[in-house]
Backbone:
């Protein structure tokens, strides 16, 4: 029966959008726990409480499920980073917000970050393309901000953005894998301070560019 779940022996019909959401949630749990290769459609159907025909009516195959989840969570990460850049005009706060975007991503939503950062299907072209696009979009959002606020070229701003996103991703994943031994706010502050001390050495676009660039103004913040 299409879109029907057995509940206490009685069928319960869900709208198609709600059913899709339910199936994706079940698939995420299975993929995170088992990885792509070890996961089976039987496992996902059982976790969702539906028959395999119902699952296949929504997703033709396991890869379709996986790609749908990747699209959702890659988009979520990119949106977090873009929102972080747009959240303030204070550059020190922007660095903190960028770090926070990655920490929030790895710290929430049922460990969905593992599908994006730790996939066992990276060699699949469709998966690789989505991951590369998400990484590129995050770097681009920070690159544009650095270019707008400093006098550096795109190539230099892009390298700075790669360094910032790399530190944020690796630092957030290490923090989580280490059992959150450092409070989240302190961990974010530590990495943000490290990154800020480097980025702050570049002048604002509106300022003259002396031979030895002056630090960015500390708008409302001390350069700690």
Residues:
């Amino acid at each position: 029966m299409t879109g029907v779940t057995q509940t206490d022996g009685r069928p319960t019909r869900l709208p198609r959008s709600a059913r899709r959401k339910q199936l994706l949630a079940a698939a995420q749990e299975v993929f995170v726990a088992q990885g792509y290769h070890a996961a089976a459609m039987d496992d996902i159907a059982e976790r969702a409480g539906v028959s395999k025909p119902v699952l296949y009516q929504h997703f033709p195959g396991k890869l379709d499920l996986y790609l749908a989840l990747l699209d959702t969570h890659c988009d979520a990460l990119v949106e977090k980073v873009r929102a972080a850049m747009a959240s303030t005009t204070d550059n020190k706060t922007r660095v903190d917000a960028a770090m926070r975007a990655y920490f929030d991503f790895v710290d929430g939503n049922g460990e969905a970050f593992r599908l994006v950062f730790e996939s066992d299907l990276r060699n699949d072209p469709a998966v690789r393309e989505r991951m590369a696009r998400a990484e590129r979009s995050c770097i681009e959002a920070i690159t544009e901000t650095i270019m707008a606020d400093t006098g550096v070229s795109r190539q230099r701003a892009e390298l700075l953005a790669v360094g910032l996103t790399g530190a944020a991703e690796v630092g957030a994943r290490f923090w989580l894998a280490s059992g959150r031994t450092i409070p989240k706010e302190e961990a974010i502050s530590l990495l943000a301070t490290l990154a800020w001390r480097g980025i702050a050495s570049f002048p604002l676009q509106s300022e003259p560019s002396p031979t030895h660039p002056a630090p960015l103004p500390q708008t409302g913040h001390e350069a700690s």
Notes: The first helix runs from residue 16 to 38. The chain is about 65% helix and 5% strand. The first strand starts at residue 4 and ends at 7. The two ends are 62 Å apart (CA to CA).
